[in-house]
Amino acid sequence: MLDVRDRQLLERVQLGLPVCSRPYAEIGVAMDMPEVEVIERLIQLKQKGLIKRMGVIVKHQQLGYRANAMIVWNIPDHLIKQLGQRISQFAFVTLCYQRPHQAQWPYNLYCMIHGKDRATVLRQLEQLSLDCALCDFEREILFSLRCFKQRGAIYQHSASDLKSHE
Amino acid sequence: MNDIDRLIINQLQTGFPICDAPYQQLASQLGLTEEMLIERLQVLLDNGTLSRFGPLYHAELMGGALTLAAVNVPVERFDEITGIINAYPEVAHNYARNHRLNMWFVVATETPEQIEQTLAAIEQQTGLTVYNMPKIKEYFVGLKLDA
């Protein structure tokens, strides 16, 4: 279970890790918590899966990834698990989700390919389609034209009840 | 961007140590000095190459909720609708895409109920049908873009 100090710590670290020699000590000073306790709690929060990882979020446009395709397929339900698992193995696939079929939007498998240009992305998609035998399924390719907003989800402990992860 | 920056970005997308001197540990793995790593990382954060440096949370385990939604925006209302949707703090990402459903956005809230409320509010304010495409299952990929 998470206690109130865990919640405060989660809220504090999401502001960003200090860029200095002893970042966890600096967080500890701000929270009146010893450095060793900050480290111990963060390791536990990571083991529990609440923190997926520490690290950076890149702005893909800044790295020259200007072609961003969302590909959606209409896959029969009995094949979706197997195909989702196969598609997600390809290094150029950056996200892969199952979402519900809908009356006006029949697609249930979504994957993202981020590439430096559209030609590369389409080539990679072709390879994926051949290797996974996806050619017979209804599909659409949606390239992004503009990014209006990109931020991480913000966590505030005050209003939410954290679920424990046993 | 130089080779050292690329090395740092690629490494930090895979994780960051949780220990008393994490920059020193990472720097020695990368063959850099701690000072150099700290200096370059600060530059990459300041110039906007990196948008965030910190924890990536598991939204659902935190009690929160996420969904993907789409709308079909008439061309002449594009700027107006963009303004309305981006003004919601619950909207985390918003992209124009080349399809009849031409605006796609991610909504992140603290509770699942707030997803429904936010989408309903957007429908009411824009007069457009909002298609809700909630996640059923995520297939694991190691999201990493080579710098």
What does this structure look like?
Chain A is an alpha+beta fold. Chain A folds into 2 domains: 44 residues; 84 residues, Alpha-Beta Plaits (2-Layer Sandwich), CATH 3.30.70.3460. Chain A has a 4-stranded antiparallel sheet with strand order 3-4-2-5, covered by helices on one side. In chain A, helix 2 packs across helix 3. Chain B has 147 residues and is α+β, with helices and mostly antiparallel strands. Chain B has 2 domains: 44 residues, no CATH class; 69 residues, Alpha-Beta Plaits (2-Layer Sandwich). In chain B, a hairpin with a 5-residue loop joins strand 3 and strand 4. Chain B is elongated and about 55 Å long. Classes of the chains: A alpha+beta (166), B alpha+beta (147). The interface between A and B is large, with 78 and 72 residues. Strand 3 of chain A pairs antiparallel with strand 6 of chain B.
Short recap of the structure:
The complex is a heterodimer of chains A (166) and B (147). Chain A is an alpha+beta fold.
What is the name of the CATH topology of the largest domain in chain B? Alpha-Beta Plaits
- SSE-based structural type of chain B: alpha+beta
Shape of chain B: elongated
Largest sheet report of chain A: 4 strands, antiparallel
Name the helicity range of chain A.
25-40%
Task: Assign the CATH topology of the largest domain in chain A.
Answer: Alpha-Beta Plaits
The proportion of residues forming helix of chain B, as a percent range, comes to: 25-40%
**Which parts of chain A are unreliable, with pLDDT below 50 for 5 consecutive residues or more?**
156-166
Quick one: which chains have the greatest interface? Answer: A-B, 78 and 72 residues
N-end to C-end Cα span of chain B: 9 Å
Q: For this structure, what is the CATH class of the largest domain in chain B? A: Alpha Beta
- Average pLDDT figure of chain B: 90
**Content of β-strand of chain A:** 15-25%
The level 1 CATH classification of the largest domain in chain A is Alpha Beta
CATH architecture of the largest domain in chain A: 2-Layer Sandwich
Q: Strand order within the widest sheet of chain A?
A: 3-4-2-5
Gyration radius of chain B (Cα, Å) is: 20 Å
Class by SSE composition of chain A: alpha+beta
